[in-house]
Amino acid sequence: MEEVDFSWERAKARRFGVWRYRELLPLRDDLRPVTLSEGGTPLIKVSNLYEKRVVNTPNTYVKFEGANPTGSFKDRGMTVGVTIAKSLSVDGVVVASTGNTAASAAAYAARAGLRCLVVLPKGGVAIGKLAQALLHGAEVREVEGTFDTALELVLESVMGGEMERFYPLNSYNPWRLEGQKTLAFEVVEELGEVPDFVLVPVGNAGNISAIWKGFKELYSFGYADKLPRMVGVQAEAAAPLAKAWALGLKKPVFVDDPRTIASAIRIGRPVNWSKAMRAVEESKGFFVSVDDGEILDAMRLLAREEGIGVEPASSVSLAALRRVAGEGRIGKGDLVVLVATGHALKDPDAMMGKLKV
Ligand code: AN7
């Protein structure tokens, strides 16, 4: 009889994406994942941008999170969050969102047979994302105000007990961050080394915290011999963390009226601000902001020079690399990873040039 191979290598080889790293997720063994094969996204070297002198770092890669099942990095966290929700026998899940979280939650809730309530800032969500939430059967409520207003409403109803049977899946939910940390594992596995810099768009500041956690775990488990520097990127008029950083403050400068064409990161009061600040400080990185013109330029450059279509909230990583290039903060010899968080199809208005600075 053939011997059964229980090795980690074999187990790993049979799994894909986020769940390939199940042993590094603090989950009970008997949980059955609610999954759409998320993660395992392309890591693309952007050599044309270097040859055309758009960037001055020859070793630059884009981690293309738009290739996830619903088109954004949110799926990495949602697979874990909804798996937990399902195991708790709740009626449904609830999120406030600038769009991508709603689209992702709606799809995974559908797969799990759960209801999905989403609260969105009216007029503040790109049409592709709203359409996805509706397609997957989410119950959509729009509120006047910003994402921050929507999140406040969700928090109040959850805390007030009105939504006892609904599991909150905003990014203060630790399970989502557990799933999102797997991006770090993939990057190190694929490159065979730890990058010098990782540039991450920052809205509610969950993703940068999660990715940093992933790198720290690899280091502490002995899978990596160093840590990267984390760079958090915000849009200029929605930059509570970048502004605080520039002023040398330890707390964010909250913004009541965040404004940017990058609607996904139009967030004035990021809930995960303290974790994100710690990530940037510990890693000896920095926060930086870029303006809407730079964001649109970077979006077009990625699309036209490299064939990579991303939404505006994702091109901020490239915009930031260009902005700091002249300042020498990131050097020619550095290995750089730009996290591109969401697909261009999310925001047709941006693709058709309807969003003007
Ligand atoms: C494309 O969907 O907050 O700093 O409600 O959609 O972890 O919040 C989206 C955020 C970056 C920022 N890029 O990530 C939501 C939401 C894209 C995004 C971010 C978002 P965080």
Portion of residues in beta strands equals 5-15%
Q: Work out the helix count.
A: 14
This entry's quaternary arrangement is single chain
Number of domains: 2
Task: Name every ligand kind in the structure.
Answer: ligand AN7
User: Stretches where pLDDT falls below 50 for ≥5 residues?
Assistant: none
Cα-atom radius of gyration: 19 Å
Helix content: 40-55%
Structural class: alpha/beta
Describe the main β-sheet briefly.
6 strands, mixed
Strand order of the largest sheet: 1-2-10-7-8-9
Q: Helix-strand pattern, N to C?
A: HEHEHEHEHEHEHHEHEHHEHHEH
Task: Kindly provide the name of the CATH class of the largest domain.
Answer: Alpha Beta
Task: Please give a structural write-up.
There is one protein chain. The chain is of the alpha/beta class and 357 residues long. It has two domains: 43-72 and 176-354, 3-Layer(aba) Sandwich (Rossmann fold); 74-173, Rossmann fold (3-Layer(aba) Sandwich), CATH 3.40.50. Helices cover 40% and strands 14% of the residues. The protein has helices spanning 8-13, 47-51, 74-87, 100-112, 127-135, 147-159, 174-180, 182-191, 206-220, 240-247, 273-282, 292-306, 312-325, 348-351, and strands at residues 43-45, 60-64, 92-96, 115-121, 139-143, 166-168, 197-201, 229-235, 286-290, 336-340. A six-stranded mixed β-sheet has the order 1-2-10-7-8-9, sandwiched between helices. The protein has a four-stranded parallel β-sheet with strand order 5-4-3-6. Helix 3 packs across helix 7 (174-180) and helix 7 crosses helix 9. It is globular, with a radius of gyration of 19 Å. The relative contact order is 0.15. The mean pLDDT is 95.
